[in-house]
Design a protein that fits this description.
The complex is a heterodimer of chains A (about 700) and B (about 60). Chain A is an all-alpha fold and about 700 residues long. Chain A has helices at about 5-25, 35-60, 70-75, 85-95, 100-110, 115-140, 145-155, 155-185, 190-215, 220-240, 255-270, 275-300, 325-330, 340-345, 360-385, 385-395, 395-400, 405-415, 420-430, 440-455, 465-495, 510-535, 540-565, 575-595, 605-620, 630-665; strands spanning about 30-35, 305. The termini of chain B are far apart. The chains are: A mainly alpha (about 700), B mainly alpha (about 60).
C-alpha cells in the first residue's frame, strides 16, 4: 500500500474508534447498540497494535528478527522448539484466556457498561498488552527465564522472594473464587450438576483411550470427548426432568463446595494422564469454540445494550459487590484489561517457542488484545440483559430476598423495571427452578449467551439447552484452571516445605504428595467454604481479593519490566511500564485500604466483623446467620480476609520500594546498568515451519 | 481428494500444536539431527516426561 493510502486507512480507523467511543460516552437516554462498543474496541486495538506496540518493539527493545531466540539456541525438541508464530499465538491465547475475562466484566456491569468498557479498552492498550509484551520480550532475551527468576535477578532477592510468595497467595484466592463461581452456578441445579459431574468420567475415558487404546491420538480422543459432552448435556436434562433422580442431584452449596475440593485434591494426586491432560485438551477446544460462538452470536444479533451507561451504583451502594466505581471497577475487571497472571505465561512456555524475537509483538501484545475483545463480548452479553434481570440474578439474597415478588420489589426500588412473572418464566425457559441470586457472574453470562444463541439459532425453545451449554462451557474451563492450579500450588508448596523438612519436597514420594495436596486444598477450600456460607454471597469479599492479588502480580511484572528497560539504557521510555504501574499501585492500594478499613460493613472487612461480633453479643443475629457461634466464625473470616488484603498491600509496597531503590542506583550511576540479557547470536536456522 | 487429505493432516497438526500436544516425531527428528550420539527417550517415557513438565509449574495456564 502506498504511504498516502496507508495514512488514509489508519486515519479512518482512528476516527471511527474515537467517534464510537465518544458516542458511547456522550449519548444519554436512548439505548445504544452493541455495534458501537465493538467498533470502539476493535478500532482502538488496531491503532494501538499498529503504532504503540511497534514503538515498544522498535524503540524500547529494538527487537531484531536476525537475533537467535532461545528456541533456536537451546532447541531441545521438548521445551525449546522454534515454532511458527501463528501456532505460538494460538497456544499463548489458549493459555491466557480463561473464565477471568468472562466473569469480571459481567460483575462490573453493575456500574453500567461505560466504566467497564473504558477500562477494558484503555487498560489493555496501555497496561495489559504492554505488560504481556514486555515480559515476553524480556524473557526471550533471557533464555526464557520465569517472572520469579527475573524479579530476583533484576530487582533483588527481596523482590524475588515477595514475588514467589505472592504467586502462591494469588493461586489460593484465585482457585477459591473460581470454585465459588462454579458452586453458585450449580447450586440446586440438577441439570448443571449432572452435566458438569459427567465431564469428569468423560475426561477419564479420554485418558484411558490415550493411554491404552490409541496412544497419542489426541484429536480422536477429543472428538469422542466433545460428543460425550453433548450426551452429558442431554443426560443432565433427563435427570432434571426425572422426579425420582432430580432431588438426588439437587445439591446445596456446601455439598458442592466439598465436591469441588475432593475433585481438586484428586486432580493433584492422580496421574496427570488420567484426568488433567485429557481435560485440558477438551477445555482448549471448548474455550476457542465458546469465544468464536460468542463473537458470531454478537455479530449476528448485534443486541442493544439495555444496561444504562452509568447506574446509580457508581456511588458504592451496588448489590453485586460493594465499593465505588473508583477503584473497584479496576479491581473487578482484571483479566481482559490487565492481568498479572499472564506474566507467568509470558515467561513460561511461550518464550521458549518463539522462532523470531519480532514475533513477541504479535503473540504478546496481540494475544492480550484478543483476550480483551473476549472481555468486551462478555460485557455485551451481560449488558444485553435488561438491568432488572441482571440484578435479580447477580444480587445476593440479602439484598433481594428469596422470592420473585421480593426480588422485583427490590429491583424496582433501585429504579429498574422487573416483572416477577418474567423472572419465573425466564427460569422455566432455561430449565432452572430459580435464577434469583445466582451470584458469581456465570449464570447471568449464560442467560445472556442463551439469549444471543437462541435468537441466532433454535428460537426460545432452545434456551434451556443453550443456557446449560454455556454453564457447562464455563464450568469446564473453570474446573480446568482449578485442577491444574491445585497441582501447581502443591508443587510450589512442596518447594517451600522442603526448607522445613527435605522429604516433603520430594514430588514422587506419595506421603509428601498426599499431605501437601491436602494442605493446599485446605487453604483454598477454607476460602471457598467461607464464601459459600456467607449471607452476602461470598463473591462480595472474594472477587475483590482476587482482583487485588492479580493486580499485585501485574505490579510485580511491571516493576520487572521497568527495571529491564532502565538497565537496557532506555530510561527515557520507562514511562511505557511506569505509567500502568503507577495506576495499578494507586488502584490496589485504595481498594485494599477500603476493603480493610472502610466503616461501611458491606465494604470493610473489619467493620463487618465488628457488626457481627456486636450482633452475636447482643443476641440479635443478622439475616442468614443461624447461631452466635456462626457469627463469630464469620467475624474471624473477615479478619482473615483483612489480613490477606493487608499481605497483598505490603507485598506491593515491598516490591515497589525494592524496585525504586534499584532504579535510583542505576540512574544515579551508583550501580552499573548491567544487562542480564543472553549475548547476541545471529539467527542461522530456518528451523520450524 | 489427495490434496484435501493433505490439507486435513496439516490442519490437524496445527490444532495439535496449538493445544500443546507433545510431538514425539519432532523430538526424534531433533535428536537425530542434533544429538545423533544420544539414545532418544522411548515414546512412553517422552510423553510421560512432557505431561509431568506441563503440570508442575505455573506458566502453562491462566485464570
Amino acid at each position: 500500500m502506498s504511504k498516502l493510502g496507508s495514512a488514509i486507512v489508519w486515519t479512518v480507523i482512528a476516527l471511527a474508534g474515537a467517534g464510537a467511543l465518544a458516542w458511547l460516552a456522550l449519548s444519554r437516554g436512548e439505548t445504544i447498540n452493541a455495534a458501537w462498543l465493538l467498533t470502539a474496541a476493535v478500532c482502538s486495538y488496531l491503532v494501538a497494535y499498529r503504532f504503540y506496540s511497534k514503538l515498544i518493539a522498535a524503540k524500547v527493545f529494538a527487537l531484531d528478527a536476525n537475533r537467535a531466540t532461545p528456541a533456536e539456541v537451546l532447541n531441545d525438541g521438548r521445551d525449546y522448539v522454534p515454532t511458527n508464530r501463528w501456532i505460538v499465538f494460538g497456544h499463548h491465547f489458549a493459555a491466557i484466556a480463561g473464565p477471568g475475562p468472562l466473569v469480571g466484566p459481567t460483575l462490573a456491569a453493575q456500574f453500567g457498561f461505560l466504566p467497564g468498557a473504558i477500562w477494558i479498552i484503555v487498560g489493555v492498550v496501555l497496561g495489559g498488552a504492554v505488560q504481556d509484551f514486555v515480559i515476553l520480550a524480556s524473557s526471550v532475551r533471557r533464555n526464557g527465564k520465569t517472572l520469579g527468576q527475573m524479579a530476583r535477578e533484576e530487582i533483588g532477592p527481596v523482590g524475588g522472594f515477595t514475588a514467589l510468595v505472592a504467586v502462591l497467595g494469588i493461586m489460593i484466592v484465585l482457585i477459591a473464587v473460581l470454585g465459588l463461581v462454579v458452586v453458585n452456578a450449580l447450586r440446586s441445579s440438577p441439570w448443571g450438576t449432572v452435566t458438569i459431574g459427567l465431564t469428569i468420567p468423560i475426561a477419564m475415558v479420554m485418558g484411558v483411550y490415550l493411554r491404552w487404546i490409541r496412544p497419542g491420538r489426541v484429536l480422536e480422543a477429543s472428538a469422542i470427548g466433545l460428543v460425550l459432552l453433548v450426551v452429558a448435556l442431554y443426560a443432565g436434562r433427563a435427570v432434571a426432568e426425572n422426579a425420582a433422580l432430580a432431588p438426588v442431584f439437587t445439591l446445596s452449596g456446601v455439598t458442592l463446595a466439598i465436591a469441588v475440593m475432593v475433585y481438586g485434591y484428586a486432580a493433584s494426586v492422580l496421574p496427570v494422564w488420567l484426568l488433567l491432560a485429557p481435560r485440558d485438551y477438551l477445555s482448549a477446544f471448548v474455550k476457542i469454540g465458546v469465544v468464536v460462538a460468542l463473537a458470531l452470536g454478537i455479530l449476528f444479533v448485534l443486541p442493544p445494550l439495555n444496561m444504562p451507561a452509568l447506574t446509580q451504583f457508581t456511588d458504592g451502594t451496588g448489590p453485586v459487590f460493594a465499593g465505588k466505581v473508583f477503584p473497584f471497577a479496576f479491581i473487578t475487571i482484571a483479566c481482559g484489561a490487565v492481568s498479572g497472571f499472564h506474566a507467568l505465561i509470558a515467561s513460561g512456555t511461550t518464550p521458549k517457542l518463539l522462532e523470531r524475537e519480532t514475533d513477541a509483538r504479535m503473540v504478546g501484545y496481540g494475544g492480550m488484545l484478543v483476550e480483551s475483545l473476549v472481555a468486551i463480548m462478555a460485557l455485551i452479553a451481560a449488558c444485553a440483559l435488561t438491568p432488572g434481570v441482571y440484578f435479580a440474578i447477580n444480587a445476593p439474597a440479602s439484598a433481594i430476598g428469596t422470592t420473585a415478588a421480593s426480588a422485583a420489589a427490590a429491583v424496582q426500588q433501585w429504579g429498574f423495571a422487573l416483572d416477577p412473572a418474567e423472572m419465573t418464566r425466564l427460569a422455566q425457559q432455561v430449565g432452572e427452578k430459580s435464577l434469583l441470586s445466582r451470584t458469581g457472574g456465570a449464570p447471568s453470562l449464560a442467560v445472556g449467551m442463551a439469549h444471543l444463541f437462541s435468537r441466532a439459532l433454535g428460537g426460545s425453545s432452545a434456551m434451556a439447552l443453550w443456557y446449560h451449554f454455556a454453564i457447562m462451557f464455563e464450568a469446564l474451563f473453570i474446573l480446568t484452571t482449578l485442577d491444574a492450579g491445585t497441582r501447581v500450588g502443591r508443587f510450589m508448596l512442596q518447594d517451600l516445605a522442603k526448607h522445613v523438612w527435605a522429604p516433603l519436597g520430594r514430588v514422587s514420594w506419595y506421603p509428601a504428595v498426599l499431605i501437601m495436596s491436602a494442605i493446599f486444598v485446605a487453604m483454598w477450600g477454607h476460602f471457598l467454604y467461607q464464601g459459600v456460607i456467607d449471607p452476602l454471597g461470598g463473591i462480595n469479599s472474594l472477587w475483590p481479593l482476587f482482583g487485588i492479588s492479580n493486580q499485585l502480580l501485574a505490579a510485580v511484572a511491571l516493576c520487572v519490566g521497568t527495571t529491564v528497560i532502565i538497565k537496557m539504557g532506555r530510561a527515557r521510555y520507562a514511562a511505557v511500564t511506569m505509567a500502568p504501574l503507577a495506576w495499578l499501585v494507586i488502584v490496589t492500594m485504595t481498594a485494599g485500604w477500603a476493603k480493610i478499613f472502610s466503616s461501611d460493613p458491606k465494604l470493610g472487612f473489619i467493620a463487618h466483623a465488628s457488626v457481627l461480633r456486636a450482633a452475636a453479643a447482643a443476641g440479635s443475629l443478622p439475616a442468614g446467620v443461624k447461631t452466635a457461634g456462626d457469627a463469630l466464625r464469620m467475624a474471624f473470616n473477615d479478619y482473615l480476609d483483612a489480613a490477606v488484603a493487608a499481605f497483598f498491600m505490603v507485598s506491593v509496597v515491598v516490591i515497589l520500594a525494592d524496585s525504586i531503590r534499584e532504579w535510583a542506583a542505576v540512574l544515579r550511576g551508583r550501580k552499573p546498568a548491567t544487562s542480564t540479557e543472553a549475548p547476541f547470536q545471529a539467527r542461522v536456522a530456518v528451523a520450524g515451519d | 481428494m489427495r490434496s484435501a487429505m493433505r490439507w486435513a493432516r496439516r490442519a490437524a497438526d496445527v490444532v495439535r500444536r496449538v493445544i500443546g500436544v507433545p510431538d514425539y516425531e519432532r523430538y526424534l527428528v531433533h535428536m537425530r539431527e542434533r544429538h545423533p550420539e544420544c539414545v532418544p527417550l522411548s515414546r512412553d517415557r517422552f510423553l510421560a516426561e512432557r505431561l509431568a513438565a506441563r503440570y508442575e509449574k505455573p506458566g502453562a495456564r491462566c485464570c
